[in-house]
Amino acid sequence: MSHVENSPAETASWAVAPEAVDSPVASALWRAYYTEVSDRYYLLHEKRRTAPEELEREIAAETGADLRPPTGVLLVARHEGEPAGTAGVRLMGDLKGTSTAELKRVFLREDMRGKGGAALLLAAAEDAARALGAGQLILDTRLDLVEARALYARHGYEESEPLTERMYAECWYVKRLAPAAG
C-alpha cells in the first residue's frame, strides 16, 4: 500500500462505512486481497502464482465471521462510490491489561493506491476499535508486505513481540488508541 497526503479533493472522494461480511462487495474485495497476498507469497518463495485450488481453500477458510457485530466490524472504503478496499476490526479482550482489538484484512485495490484512501481506512478502523471499547489495536503481517508495514509505521503503529500465532505472521504491531475526541 502506498500513501499520499490527503488533499481536500481526495478526502472528499472517499467514504468508509461498515459492510456485511457476506456481501458481494466484501467477497469481491477479499478475493482481490487473497489473490494479491497469496501470489506475492508464492512468487517470492516458490516462483509461481497461487494455484486456483489454493486460493479457493484460503478464501473458504476465512469467512470473516469474527468481523460481525457486536464484537467486530468490516469497513469498506469507496472511492467516488466504487469499492476500493477493506479493513476489519475484531475485539479480542484484554492483552497486558488493556482492552484490545485486532486489525485484519487491510487492503486497497492496486488501482486505488496513492489516492489517500489508506490513511482514511486506518483512521476509520481505529475509530471502530474505540467504539468497541478497545484501548489498543494490534495486527500481524508478513515481512514481504513492506508497503503495509511502512503505512502502519507512518500512522503510529510500533513493532512488538509476537502477539498472535498464525502461519504467515512474521511481524507484529501495536498502537495505543487515544480516547475519542469529544
From TrEMBL:
CDD domains tied to this protein: NAT_SF (cd04301)
Any idea where the N-acetyltransferase domain is?
Answer: 28-178
Q: Which Pfam families match?
A: Acetyltransf_1 (PF00583)
Name the keywords, alphabetized. Answer: Acyltransferase, Transferase
Protein name, entry field: GNAT family N-acetyltransferase
Q: Which residues form the signal peptide?
A: none
The lineage, from the top, is: Bacteria, Bacillati, Actinomycetota, Actinomycetes, Kitasatosporales
